[in-house]
Design brief:
Strand content: 5-15%
Shape: globular
Order of helices and strands: EHEHEHHHHEEHEEHHHHHHEEEHEHE
Structural class: alpha/beta
CATH topology of the largest domain: Rossmann fold
CATH class of the largest domain: Alpha Beta
Bound molecules: S-adenosylmethionine
Strand order of the largest sheet: 1-11-12-8-7-2-3-6
Low-confidence stretches: 1-26, 432-448
Radius of gyration: 23 Å
CATH superfamily of the largest domain: Vaccinia Virus protein VP39
Distance between the termini: 35 Å
CATH architecture of the largest domain: 3-Layer(aba) Sandwich
Number of domains: 2
Largest sheet: 8 strands, mixed
Helix content: 25-40%
Number of helices: 15
């Protein structure tokens, strides 16, 4: 089967609000998209969003324009089915809406919960505990203090994660954090530590977590750990003030559910959500759980590889490593009038001489991914009110040189379970993450005529 080449429109800098009315007539719209770029990088400097870096987050501008466009002046309930560090949640609360998010990764869920509820924090109490921290740290660092805390036992790394001088400082910080009685204030400190902890370790994100030396960087023998954490705490204090000034209503609910969206029926009533804004993991095998191992272990969310395995099994789309050795994994649904079956079959026949690295393993991975797309679409149908909209940001993929138009297939899957496919917009034609596919998981080199893009699939519940 010949694989069709797509003409992808160049990314625009458009920041126009999107509205249901400017939805294009044709379903796949690569021309006049009104969406702003959904990429996370612009969040790095914005209040609240800047607290926790996350490899694959949304831009807050994208979420804001979606809220303005689809909820207009009405206040409603917004759901992010895969909420990551809570970009949708924060923007929804700032916009005066109730927010719900599902997230399996406990570290990301912590970030989402703390950020979306930040405006409740008593700033005087927070500032006073930050001062206590300074006094505690200064005193302990100046003496021959033996910290009570210890590194998490189950956290094994090939090289030392922290060199001894850094580790001693980190453990002093842990002792202080453990002494904080108030849960909310303790969580702010835990987040300040977790969001900075890799920056003073011998590891770095490239974008997957790896040894600094493997990326040509020096090991870190000593580091002003308390300063890094204090800088983060100061940013937090500043942003809490900002958020409190922004809030028009204080009786909103932001609920981060640390569970799989596939269990949504255990948590939410049917037809209870006005707008879904979300982005599932892409078909690029990026391993959120493995990449957050330091935070999961040091925050006490993981104690052994089994805990990581549980997250891996719950992850949307599974991972190539978990399905590549299966003989054959098929689609669990039929999708007439599409070439999804043929495309997976083409992939299955490629590079079989590479064994587990060949096409069959990748076809299994893609089939597992689309089976979860089907469950995901069913979940959207369950939670949305009639007339409600879902905006799903999803990237295409290139596996063994075969382009997989995940956006189009997902749109068709959603139609097949009774959602209306309003349109597919492509505001971003070359996305960050190419390197993940090419370096991290050793797939065949992408052919030059295929391009990675990010699409917004707009669905409506009739
Ligand atoms: C593309 S990221 C979303 C990022 C988010 N938009 C943000 O701005 O932070 C996808 C997220 O889905 C989470 N995830 C994976 N499988 C899940 C599942 N079954 N249920 C809920 N969350 C899941 C991952 O841990 C990851 O944080």
């Amino acid at each position: 089967m010949a694989i069709a080449t797509k003409t992808i429109r160049r990314p625009t800098q458009l920041q126009l609000p999107i509205t249901p009315d400017n939805a294009g007539a044709s379903v796949v719209n690569r021309k006049d998209t009104g969406f702003s770029d959904p990429n996370f990088s612009s969040n790095k400097t914005l209040p609240i969003h800047r607290w926790v870096p996350w490899i694959a987050g949304f831009s807050s501008g994208f979420v804001k324009s979606a809220l303005d466009g689809f909820l207009n002046k009405k206040k409603g309930t917004v759901l992010d089915t895969f909420c990551g560090v809570g970009t949708t949640m924060v923007e929804s609360i700032l916009g005066g809406h109730n927010a719900i998010g599902f997230e399996i990764n406990p570290y990301a869920a912590l970030a989402s919960r703390v950020k979306a509820n930040a405006y409740h924090i008593d700033l005087n109490e927070f500032t006073s505990i930050v001062e206590d921290f300074h006094r505690f740290y200064k005193k302990k660092a100046a003496s021959n203090y033996e910290p009570q805390s210890a590194p998490p036992l189950g956290f094994k790394t090939r090289a030392l994660f922290y060199n001894p001088l850094v580790l001693h400082k980190v453990l002093i910080v842990q002792d202080f954090v453990l002494s904080i009685e108030d849960n909310t204030l303790r969580d702010l400190f835990r987040l300040a530590f977790a969001s900075t902890m890799v920056s003073y370790s011998n590891y770095s994100y490239e974008p997957s977590l790896g040894r600094r030396v493997s990326a040509g960087r020096e090991e870190i023998h000593d580091f002003p750990v308390a300063k890094a954490i204090t800088d983060k705490l100061n940013d937090m204090a500043e942003d809490i003030t900002w958020m409190q000034e922004q809030m028009e209503r204080s009786n909103l609910e932001a609920q981060t559910i640390n569970d799989s969206f596939f269990n949504c029926r255990n948590h939410l009533s049917p037809a209870s959500v006005d707008l879904v804004i979300t982005s599932p993991p892409y078909l690029n095998n990026y391993h959120y759980n493995r990449n957050t191992r330091p935070q999961l272990y040091w925050l006490g969310y993981a104690h052994s590889p089994d805990d990581l395995k549980k997250l891996e099994d719950m992850n949307f789309g599974k991972f190539w490593q978990t399905v590549r050795d299966l003989d054959r994994l098929d689609l669990s649904f039929a999708l007439p009038n599409t070439d999804i079956g043929e495309r997976l079959q083409t992939l299955r026949t490629l590079n079989n001489e590479k064994g587990t690295y060949g096409g069959n393993g990748w076809a299994n991975y893609a089939a597992a991914y689309f089976n979860d797309c089907h469950r995901f679409a069913e979940g959207i149908h369950y939670v949305l009110k009639r007339g409600g909209t879902a905006l799903v940001v999803i990237g295409n993929s290139i596996l063994q040189g075969v382009m997989i138009p995940t956006d189009e297939y997902f749109g068709k899957i959603a139609e097949s379970i009774g959602l209306e496919l309003v349109k597919i917009d492509i505001p971003r034609a070359t996305r960050v993450g190419n390197s993940i596919i090419q370096s991290d998981v050793r797939v065949g080199k992408a052919k030059s005529h295929h391009q990675l893009y990010e699409a917004v699939v707009v669905l409506k519940k009739p």
